[in-house]
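Aim 2 progress update. The chain analyzed this quarter is reproduced below.
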Amino acid sequence: MRKRSFLKTAATIVALSLSTAPAMAEVDFSGQTVTVIVPFGEGGGTSRIFGFFGPFLQKYLPGNPLVQMQNVPGGGSIKGANQFHNTQTADGTYLLATSTSTVVNQASRNPLVEYDLSAYQPVALIGSETHWFTSASVSSTPYDFTPLVDRPLMLYALNSPSSADLFHVWVFDKLGIKGAKPIPGLSSSAGYQAFLRGEIQVSSHGTANYLRQVAPELESGAFTDLMSFGLVREDGSVDRMPYSPDTPTFPEQYKLIQGKTLEGADLEAYLAINAIWNQASKALFLPTDTPEDIVTAWRLAFKKIATDPEFIAAAAETLGPAELIIGDAAGPIIKSAATLSDATIEQLNAALKANKLTFRIK
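Predicted structure tokens:
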């Protein structure tokens, strides 16, 4: 299923056309070194994913340049992203790789942020998905939140309310789970270990870890699947994940629990959060003033990569069934993700306040 899903995504990407292809002959990176700024430490998810693309980029970029990662950790990705912003070199050899936290820093109006993701040239977005699950001892029926809604206390991990984890607070607040209480200071891995020990009742994983760690436990009956956040299409519709077609989405569970359709400010907040959390989970940018022919060369390289049989075979394990969004289609997603409306900020702050968390989006 995972390989078929990636093949389908690749076919969709190739269906896109590039009207500026004739200009490609002018772009040549022969003998040059391409540097991708990764604003995190070595060994993290962003380094791993874009490092995986490196050899394929060397193969398909004009002139076959050397592609290297430069890790610049600090400030939850702010240091490296600011460095990119202040030293932009618009010749196609200097790029920024981002993760969800990079977007959240800008969207939450962190005063230390100097970068502006919506001003750069997006090359590709590598989407993911968020899944929630519980133990069979808490709820033995798949997709049934009733035992959780009825619990006087339902604990879940919260790394930091100023990180992307703040979206978990909004999710449980909107579902109306009154007993849901975050445990701050637990990273994703520490939270998962706490869940395995029975110290918290609900855990969550992104696509890769969900398929690798959670799916076998679902099959054995030890875990119970609850929902995914949902796959947002270009027309705004929300689908279930192709690799997990029986798992309901957040809007479906919202309607079931609250008895009404997700709409208005709630829907607006959901779409903005989805853009940050899922669609722009990992992204690659060229500087703002990069010439069009160079931008086209990079986007075409990614399109060729997506249909490379060697890449497809390896990506099924390395990336999972990731959805690649290449070129112009990425622009509106980044804008939505990086610039939250006042209504969405109000929604997020209300959820933080309701959970007695002191962090607020200004």
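The first helix runs from residue 2 to 14. The CA atoms of residues 133 and 311 lie 31 Å apart. These observations will guide the mutagenesis experiments scheduled for the next reporting period.
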